[in-house]
Amino acid sequence: MDSLTLEDIARKSGVSRSTVSRVINDHPNVSQKARERVQEVINQTGFQPHAAARALVSNRAWTCGLILPRTINSFFTDPYYPCLIQGIAQACSKQDYTFSLFLMGDKEDEEKMFARVARRGFMDGILFQSDQIGDMLIDRLADSGMPLVVLGRPFQENKVSYVDIDNIESVETAVDYLLRTGHKRIGTITGPLNTTVGIDRKKGYTNSLKKNGLGFDESLVVEGTFTEESGYQKMKKLLPAKPDAIFAASDQMALGAIRAIKEYGLDIPADISVIGFDDFQLPIPPSISLTTIRQPIARFGNEALNLLLDIIKNKDESPRKVILKSELIIRASTK
Amino acid sequence: MDSLTLEDIARKSGVSRSTVSRVINDHPNVSQKARERVQEVINQTGFQPHAAARALVSNRAWTCGLILPRTINSFFTDPYYPCLIQGIAQACSKQDYTFSLFLMGDKEDEEKMFARVARRGFMDGILFQSDQIGDMLIDRLADSGMPLVVLGRPFQENKVSYVDIDNIESVETAVDYLLRTGHKRIGTITGPLNTTVGIDRKKGYTNSLKKNGLGFDESLVVEGTFTEESGYQKMKKLLPAKPDAIFAASDQMALGAIRAIKEYGLDIPADISVIGFDDFQLPIPPSISLTTIRQPIARFGNEALNLLLDIIKNKDESPRKVILKSELIIRASTK
DNA sequence: CTGAAAGCGCTTACAG
DNA sequence: CTGAAAGCGCTTACAG
Q: Which residue from A127, B47, B215, B254 lies 20 to 30 Å from B265 (Cα-Cα)?
């Protein structure tokens, strides 16, 4: 590792260290000639400014934190997390930012994370994945004054900035669609009801039933955990209630539900229609042609980072929210 | 965000800034009395030293990079990545380190990543997930002089330090076991054969056959991609060859293979025994009781980070390797 | 457009 | 054990 400094580059190109700094930071006040000379030396030597020195003086670390509560069972099986990470990685790369990942397990991790995050000069802001347990942390983080954007609606939605997708509306649309296409007994496998995303998607379901003059049938509603296995187990519980359609709050659960339905000897969509939620468009498409709600996960990461950078730049105090639209994708699992 | 400096703490506790620094860094040369006084002020104010200032002067950023080539299809579906990330996160937390994640897609990401990684004062070292495509990058990274540990055996194994598990030996043991328990026609679904892990696990398979005096039967070997879906598809190809046992190079593929076998109407393990590889011990256990090789994934991350920290501290030049033992876990999918 | 100078917040010999 | 001082490698008014 060479350790050239600005001073070295300045000497080699016959200008002052101020000028070199200006060239590096694309400052306008540099003559064409000087700029070219310096640029040449930089290219030739492969000089890279010292990140820490730069962070110290400019008060900008060019790094943000992504905090994921590890309390979520689905972390290891739900493509949501890799997709989210990919989206944020791409957005960061575009903005010349870097992100540090924090996976919190126990209370101790939490304290350690908090101490490190609080160190000035370390990160410019934080992206925090909303969930039930971690939500206590949101208050602490918000109080610390560190720029913060929550991924998904947090319980304290008026206090912090967040980005979310239109969970309620999109599910409502999907269930409307099922009703319009002649289904009478629509069941749902919800997400965990101690999370806002679980609550909101369930709300979309009940909204639609109510709006269409249908009563709420307890026996048609079960609570899952977003995993394939929970979809499978919960669908078994639902089958005796004889639904003719199912809305599952994630694709993984929809896949599990389909497995249970087939095992039971029923046909999809002839006997039961199934709608999922996610449609992450992975490199390997699922073998089942699933009607589902597509959430724009890549855009989600992108919008979150942009909102965060905006807050960092403008020292904006008032919480802001960004809600992204999802889209119903109709395929072969509904009739 | 308060922005106290060392100087402020020094004033408040009636000592010099040197002494405060010593307290923070646990330097022995501080009187009990001074230490207590300073500690009290620190606790009271919640002072945290400025990370960038510290990194600048101590030449240690307390951050490392984790680089994952995103070229791998299985990134979105294989629990390997979340497990790995968790292992490294835990190890980092213990060592008071932070890690930045780099997910590379195209050539452009690669250049950006490289430029950022090369900036001095930004990261102390790099963990690089081995794979076929990214391996060109390993040379560049190694040449840059940045401390580097590769996760999994890289193709240029003599040039860089790495940690790996005993792929060849453990698979050999597993296939030995199948032979010992009376199986005659053992097939395998390998990993991608342009990766060292794919190659090594296949080698374990052929080693065992050879050692036990069995010929290599082309029709019993197919190449998968580590995903469930590829296990399913490839097993279908394998069934006409009438194997009585299968070694799949990942649990995901084993699960896919089992799906195909059951669909075909055969029984496990009565007709075909199945052994997988991974046994990540996720919070949600798989519904199938699978005989498999357990790789110590949490330890893997831990050992990798420790090796890296060691290299950083000792400026060690000669490449080192750490090989971890896996373990055959016998369950109900073998007879 | 350019350079000399101050300063960011630390750590660490050095002298006492 | 303690403090004054130098210095890490940058950026950014300031004066020209």
A: B215
